[in-house]
Automatic annotation (TrEMBL):
InterPro entries noted in UniProt: DNA_mismatch_repair_MutS (IPR005748), DNA_mismatch_repair_MutS-lik_N (IPR007695), DNA_mismatch_repair_MutS/MSH (IPR017261), DNA_mismatch_repair_MutS_C (IPR000432), DNA_mismatch_repair_MutS_clamp (IPR007861), DNA_mismatch_repair_MutS_core (IPR007696), DNA_mismatch_repair_MutS_N (IPR016151), DNA_mismatch_repair_MutS_sf (IPR036187)
Any Gene Ontology CC annotation: cytosol
Organism expressing this protein natively: candidate division TA06 bacterium DG_26
Record-stated family: Belongs to the DNA mismatch repair MutS family.
Pfam families, per the entry: MutS_I, MutS_II, MutS_III, MutS_IV, MutS_V
GO term, biological process aspect, one: mismatch repair
Keyword Membrane among record annotations: no
Protein name: DNA mismatch repair protein MutS
Amino acid sequence: MPKLTPLLAQYQRIKEKHRDAILLFRLGDFYETFYDDAKRAAKILNLTLTSRPCGKQHRVPLAGFPYKASETYIDKLVKAGQTIAICEQLGDAKSSRELVYREVVEVITPGTVCRESLLDTRRNNYLVSISSDGERFGLAFCDLSTGDFRLTELGRNKVLEELERIDAKELLMPSSFQLKVTGPVRSLDDYRFDPHAGYERLRQHFGVASLSGFGCEEMKLAHGASGAIFSYLEETQKRTIDNITKLSPYRVEQFMWIDTTTRRNLELLERIRDSGREDTLLAVLDRTSTAMGAREVRRWILSPLLDLQAIKKRQDGVAELLESERRKAIEKVLLQLGDIERLISKVALEKATPRDVIALRESLTRLPAVKALLQDFTSSYQREIDGRISRFDSVCELISSAIVDSPPSTSQEGGIIKPGFDGEVDRLRGLTSSGKTLIAEMEAKERARTGITSLKVGYNSVFGYYIEVTKPNLHLVPEGYMRKQTLVNAERYITQELKELETSVLGAEDKLKEMEHDIFCRVRKEIGTVTDRVQESARAIGELDVLCCLARVAKENRWTKPTVDGTDRIRIVDGRHPVVEMMVAGGFVPNSCELNGTTQQILVITGPNMAGKSTYLRQIALIVILAQIGSYVPAKDAKIGLVDRIFTRIGASDDLSRGVSTFLAEMNEAANILNNATPRSLVLLDEIGRGTSTYDGLSIAWAVVEHLHNNPVVKARTLFATHYHQLTELEYVLEGVKNYNVACKEVGERIVFLRKVVPGASDRSYGVEVAKLAGLPREVIERAREILENLEEDEFLVPGMPRLAKSKDREVGPSEQLSIFSSSLVNLKEELSKLNLEGMTPIEALNRLFELKKLLDSHK
Ligand SMILES: Nc1ncnc2c1ncn2[C@@H]1O[C@H](COP(=O)(O)OP(=O)(O)OP(=O)(O)O)[C@@H](O)[C@H]1O
Ligand SMILES: [Mg+2]
């Protein structure tokens, strides 16, 4: 190992402490990265990787970017999932010739970012921590940018689902843990999750004798997880985390359980096909006006309530706003509010700029207007919200008197403090401006004294103030001028008097900047003392915003207030799908639904492809979710008996990327349903058993329905859409099963979808007609009709083998049937030899394999 230069030795010392971060090492006007960091950074940032000599024949890889443009580079690195350690020069680079002292001042990780440029205003950015005693799990999670801190404890079977719901940006896990999760994970030493130490840390942080005030005294495992979060935050932020002012414990049992598959299938937040955000329940529902409201409505969608009173409280809140003239006025004020929650967090973490502080004031001064508008409201939620919103008159006054109205974006360059706020600032300002006048006077005086009319006093950052005399006048330069610099046409001098003036002017300027910065920090600290009250107000505003938004959506879309109760009944009159309704403007056909635990427990829904079965299933689930959020619902009338969980098995959600076949994925989901559903649950089964051969699929589907019907522990209310007509026979043997179908009629050879769900089984499947709609060649359609007829006449050649190939024109036997099969083999062979395996990705190859197998299966 060659001997390191002192600089690299310093680098190594610092890097040692930040092994898993990219260390940005400040060198003058640049941030530099070295070694592997340089290689990683160069790749992500598209920088040129250079190298720097270090001893003989040894070069160190190096990549850097200018400090001035660092924001965008750092953002890019964090977005790429990297952790960044920012190492600054803390000593004075000018004054000492020795190595400048350097230290890491901030570590940015995906779960701890606070920069606006990296945050989505409409979503929380959670750092999650997990601990376990082998049996149960403790979770704690925190959005550092808002100060939101929540914790819970739960059993093994729900941990992964809950982690997905929280949508962790970074997960802290004890290093002895083996939990397979996606996303960035940081392993920390096990001792950092110690429950006892965690408890003490929480007590200390909040300055309380016990945690019972927060309602989480007993959550031992969550204490451990919380302790790890606090230590990690302090380590990365290099300071105490003053924006966390309370703990919000919860139990997963408080909320309707919506597993990950169901959340995806129902497209609550994202579209299935491309993860887009349009055409989702969130897109329809989120008409909020503030960032706090946007984050809140997202949380509401993911956690529908199970407590009837809490649901009613929200409903009443929405109802009153819906009828009130004042809603629009409230929305107007809300629209003018900034992200108060994040602004106050920046204040508490001493990251707020002068502009942030002004933005905060702009918002806080509008709170009394909101309170005034709330005065006439009587429902308990509005009363509570009004009580939670404080007035911040003195804070606003402080800001107004201290900080100028349009301050610069940094606190180091001066120009922040208003005249009249601080005597010393005013004096120094006077001094710098009078100093400048003195210098101007001196210039005039020297011109007169020397007779050099072109004599100038100038300034540059290297020499400070100087007197410049052009070459032709040099003979007039008097005694006492000291030469400092020679230019092509002129000489520059300094004098004793000029230097003295300079010291007082520049000294005053530096001092002024420093002083303004100090005063700004003091003011910021002062604002920080009301962090908890501002946060509470901001959160109340968020909830008010969601209530307004629900009222607005209900009004604009003609939704009605559902009755939610403790019965086992789900009765929807003329329900609509909230998202599809928007897409088929005006043309949506409403449908009713009656479910209960006895006579209408399982509805088997048949009907042709494209009829609207899946839409119907989803719309019922979405109406239930909306009702339990406290929202109005798209229906003429709805009575919803509380649903504890929604399970879905919808569509062929091939999960090739996870290496699970359609059929296996489907069976996993079915198993999950049968193992976890309760009589309070709502189960949607859409074409279960489709991914395998007919008889297998049918048998499985049949058995699943029987189990759901007969097993009293499971006995969930179920909607079952299927193409297996045989399943409609279940109605005759099981009391709780009822048949429905989505009606359509034939007009000549065409099929017309009526979109109406009616009692009884559908008479046939119309698959061939739909195929025709899709433009399959005429010969194929006709031939398909023929084969279908044969099948429907139950023409079997040998037991179990339909006489598929029987044709009106020609009589065929088993040999010809074989020939269909063997001709498909020829096709297969051809297809296989055409494949260009080198040019395919594994997924493409797998997809192709699926198609080929299907081709083969279709002829079996
Ligand atoms: N009630 C309705 N009113 C108007 N249009 C509807 C209605 N229900 C469904 N549609 C339209 O019909 C399309 C097909 O509906 P859907 O996917 O629910 O059919 P499906 O019966 O599940 O078909 P498949 O058997 O092929 O899965 C939807 O995309 C929607 O545009
Ligand atoms: Mg469907």
